[in-house]
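FORM 7B - TANDEM STRUCTURE REPORT

SECTION 1: FIRST PROTEIN
SEQUENCE AND TOKENS:
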Amino acid sequence: MTADPRIPRDVEPRLLRAFVAVSEELHFTRAAAALYVAQQALSRDVRRLERELGAELFVRTTRQVTLTAEGERLLPYARRVLEAQDDLAAAFARGTGSGSAARPLLVDLNSPGLISGRILERARALAPQCELMARYESGLTGAAAEMLAGRLDVSFGRYAGLEPALRSRLARQPVRYEPMAILLPLDHPLAELDEVPLGALAGETVYAGAGNPRTLEWTDLAHRLFEGRGIEVAAPAPLAVGPEEFGRIMAKNRTPVLAAVDFPAMPESVLRPLTDPVPLSPVSLVWRRGLVHPGLDALRAAAAELATAEGWLRRPEDGWVPAMDEPTMT
């Protein structure tokens, strides 16, 4: 069969990726942010794809962006092409192999002392022939960009909090409904309690990473939790790096900090679990779609083993999670 001469044989994957991002966001600014490119460059790529295909893919007005019939027809094909490209890139990235020949797997644990560290240690025991190297990226949004750039392989965090364009290029495995806690200055009135009811934070301003572009999913979770409860998310502030600096800032500003129950001890503060309801942070193991590595297999097995043994995926009766997160934890 003779190929249709109107269809280009060598469409660049970058152009297809721009098209898919805009199709999912239906907004050029958000799509550009999800791909970490300038909006002008994204628009240029979409226009070039339309010229190469000889078809208009979007209807653009000052108020909205919608797919044309040709755009709807192209979308499933574009997704299959990009998925195949991601699989190819992952399979050959930096010499992926089997056994002792496999390259080191770079695993983001987010922060020291969390359950991700336990999963990594168990995976090392399950696959001693693999080199699993820890990294600390501090947030899944930042780690996702590193994974898609090939500078990181695996991370942990709230998958539903990522932009759709990022999620489409990542895979995930639910790990834990992680209870949340509040980090309080030593002399805060609520520090005397063993547990802090969520309602007791009404009128408080709580730090949740606002302004940190690497932890957008965590700040979004805080906004959803605090909505309608009279709790404010603290304004953006420079990130305190290291326990000593964290303790100094805590003693100076006295702002409570939203955290997980496994958050490591910090100077000048106490950690108290939140109750009534118990807010849960939905944690998943997340990796670049198509990644093939025996270390990833070990991590997935370790996460499943620990989740089963310790009931990490059992939600307490009074547990709270955003509705948008529930489908990602099945």
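SECTION 2: SECOND PROTEIN
SEQUENCE AND TOKENS:
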Amino acid sequence: MAETRTVRAAAVQIAPDLETPGGTVDRVIAAAAEAAQKGAEFVVFPETFVPWYPYFSFIRPPMLSGKEHLHLYEHSVTVPGPVTQAIAQAARRNSQVIVLGINERDHGTLYNAQLIFDADGTMVLKRRKITPTYHERMIWGQGDGAGLKVVETKVGRVGALACWEHYNPLARYSLMAQHEEIHAAQFPGSMVGQIFADQMEVTIRHHALESGCFVVNATGWLTEEQIASISPEESLRAGLRGGCMTAIISPEGKHLVPPLTSGEGILIADLDMALITKRKRMMDSVGHYARPELLSLNIDQRPTSPMHMSELIAAGESHEALAPARTAESDADRATDQRVANLRRSAG
């Protein structure tokens, strides 16, 4: 039978705080509380919203971006840490599932990360954007397949991708194959102009149709004062306007409420989960409409690491404990060499 459950979702489009350390976190908590007052059980915020998206990198050459980049390092988020604790408390207090984009600092590298907090405050997923886009490659490191996961939450099975990861069909398919029910999409907003918003709309509506899931998409917003603070040159400010498409899409590819394309606001919509079965009855990309014997996805979900230790050393074994194994290997190599020499003499 089709599921009769309904989830009230919120997509948040607000401006970050570019001046006050921690100010954007306060805005996130306030917006989550406002959405809770409207009954929202699932809330999505924009890409790398905390502390802010690195807009400077889009309009400034790398040679002139060092100061802003270091400033971003200073205020980026360690996971776990005070920011994740604050958001976890908000999720628990509001009984909400919260999806938040952050700049994650892991020692000497920043990452574009997406965090999902369940309604009890548990952080159930931290994932990193697998390939930063264009100018972003000077700002963030690359993520790995460990975060390409769909997680069980109070509202259902949730997956997430950031921005142009939605142009990677295999990344999307990895979540589809895990039967995501609600997809959290995040874009920076206030960039590139109307063409960015138009392309974004096509992308999220297509994913909803192809995956047979709901898509809740959040984009950021910059005020004119903030744009002026990022660039003193009017000719460059045009690149920091437009490009907003905060929206909530059904599995049939329809807007459930009119999208928000400018200004601040919170979209609210009820997700009728029965629509997932209605769509997949006709076309299930990872079920009856798939041909896995012809086409399938191979995914490596192991976390990447710059250092690997042998099992014996990792278990605390000493170098002396490894000596017998090394001696046996040397003896075997010498015996092989002797056999090869004997064969050559016989052949001669």
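SECTION 3: OBSERVATIONS ON SECOND PROTEIN
The first strand starts at residue 6 and ends at 13.
The mean pLDDT is 92.

SECTION 4: SIGNATURE
Preparer initials: ____
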